[in-house]
Amino acid sequence: MKLTPPKQITFWISVILGVLGILGLVLPFLAPFAFWLVLAGLVLLVLALLLKGL
After folding, report:
1. More confident residue, 30 or 12
2. For residues 45 and 32, what is the distance between their CA atoms, to the nearest angstrom?
3. Where are the domains positioned within the chain?
4. pLDDT digits (tens, 9 = 90+) for 20-50
């Protein structure tokens, strides 16, 4: 299996999702979605590593 680096925009979207998930610990309106935001960021990053051009 060959991994490819993600595009810069994909990387930053996954970072933003992760940061929003972490902010969910202190911001009450993000709290119900905190876990899912972090999970979505990680899944996006893993998909970008596995799929070429993402």
Report:
1. 12
2. 22
3. 8-50
4. 999 999 999 989 999 999 999 999 999 999 9
What is the DSSP track for 5-38? PPPHHHHHHHHHHHHHHHHTTT-TTTGGGHHHHH
Half-sphere exposure of 23 (CA within 13 A, CB side): 10
- The type of residue at 17 is L
Q: Estimate to the nearest angstrom the gap between the alpha carbon of 50 and the chain centroid.
A: 14
Q: Do 6 and 45 form a contact (C-beta atoms < 8 A)?
A: yes
- Given this model, what pLDDT does residue 23 score? 94
Distance separating alpha carbons of residues 2 and 49, to the nearest angstrom: 9
